Fold:
Amino acid sequence: MTVSYLDERTGLDLRAAEDAVADLLRALGQDVDSEHLRGTPARVARSFAELLTPSTFSPTSFPNRQGYDELVVARDIPFHSLCEHHLLPFRGVAHVGYLPGGRFLGLSKLARVVEMFARRLQVQERLTQQVAHWLEEQLEPKGVGVVLEAEHLCMSLRGVRSTGALTVTSALTGIMREDARTRTEFLALTRQRRQG
Ligand code: ZN
Structure:
């Protein structure tokens, strides 16, 4: 009978994860009882717990009283996530923008929104969509643009071995999708860094 150490908030059971990592190491032909690996199952379990637990935050938004209607863009937000197909990290930068409608969100909060959806098992396309949908719902903006550029360890370490290759995904909604000028302006802003 195994005792459950389930964390109510996160749904994580660290002790069970630790046992599972030890089993995995054994299945991979490793000597879990050796001095070198003794602490590994606990460390791996804690690492995964950290990678899968976003810090909580309150998404305080503000009414757009001045009727501000220019693009708000946060560029090069660093993020990392965990690929749900291989349990290997993918990491890179996010560019998040919106054309304000009724409400504003503090710029620093845009990074927290990315983190909230990145700290779980993900695929990059879904992560991109989730960030965009969340902003749509919370801010009711005129349009949202999210571009993610990331390197996937599952791609660069195995298979195609394209080290440094970036996967780029985007989600555009509302006027950001429909109006060519707004879309071009947003995408140009996200490209500034890449072009130097
Ligand atoms: Zn993968």
Notes: The first strand starts at residue 61 and ends at 63. The CA atoms of residues 63 and 164 lie 41 Å apart. The pocket of zinc ion is lined by residues 83, 85-86, 88, 152, 154 (CB under 6 Å).
